[in-house]
Amino acid sequence: MPAAYKKWKADFIRCIPYTAKVGLTGPVCVSIDARWSVPVSYSKKDVQSALSGQKYPVADNDNIAKGVLDAMTQASVWADAKQVVTLTVTKRYAADEGIAVKVASL
User: Fold this and answer.
1) What is the pLDDT of residue 21?
2) What are the extents of the domains in the chain?
């Protein structure tokens, strides 16, 4: 496992609120909103396109989901990622980069 991925996962786990580490049982629904800052190399026109949703980050949604689900399993939000029966991943450029995750028991 690459060192950068290990560091990202550790940082992500530290950001999970203690109250979320409840060891959910049963099926869950997960929604991930991954936001990237616009590359500084973009022209003004490209920045506008990115922020209006006409350009998207190149990261693969399956890789985004894998990292988030692994971290949340390790943080004991649930017992196993196989409990996730509904998964939505959105990636976009935004002024405020970050990842927002919503989890709901079904």
Assistant:
1) 78
2) 28-105
